Amino acid sequence: MLTWKDIINYSVKGNPLPDKRVEKTEEEWQDLLTPEQFRITRNKGTEAPHSGALCSSYETGKYSCICCETPLFDSTIKFNSGTGWPSFTQPIKENAIKYHKDTSFGMLRVEVMCNTCDAHLGHVFPDGPEPSGLRYCINSESMKIVKERVSDEQ
Ligand SMILES: [Zn+2]
Which of 21, 39, 139, 143 has the fewest CB atoms within 10 Å distance of its CB? Predict the structure, then answer.
């Protein structure tokens, strides 16, 4: 389980290696994404709180990167933070996410990005619920939910 100390280490000393990399040009991303998705993921934008489609959704499934479809979070680690953005306590896999020290707007924060394609996802804060104490605050527009198939077989 990742803790705040691990996150700080990653943001200072370097991130874990991803399983694979997806790299595209600005134009290719623009063709793939809606303008709002492009603004947030490729230009580090933020959606308005409570605006995101995934904010109040608690359907079972995996949350994947909107850009490269790499699974990032699981619905079992989603929680209601009351902030207006989808919130998670852990990534689905330790190397799914990369961390970057963000000093914009005069604040010291840790930006989280997709480790596969560098899509901006949101930020992580050390004020989440136990046991990890982490709160990944993620834009809905950066992700899509891949619902789990319900099996009817006996
Ligand atoms: Zn990605």
Answer: 21
pLDDT for the residue 154:
47
Token readout for 72 is 């990032």
Rounded to 5°, angle at Cα 29 from 85 and 110? 40
60 within 8 A of 75, measured Cβ to Cβ: yes
Ion ligand 1 residues within 5 Å by Cβ: 65, 67-68, 114, 116-117, 119
Give the residue carrying structure tokens 């959704």: 57
Q: Which amino acid would we find at residue 41?
A: T
Asked about 55 being catalytic, the answer comes back as no
CA of 8 to the centre of ligand 1 (A): 21
**Does residue 59 or residue 151 have the better pLDDT?**
59
Evaluate if pTM is beyond 0.85: yes
Cα(81) to centroid of ligand 1, in Å?
24
Are 12 and 101 spatial neighbours (Cβ–Cβ below 8 Å)?
A: yes
Say how many Å lie between the CA of residue 124 and the centre of ligand 1: 17
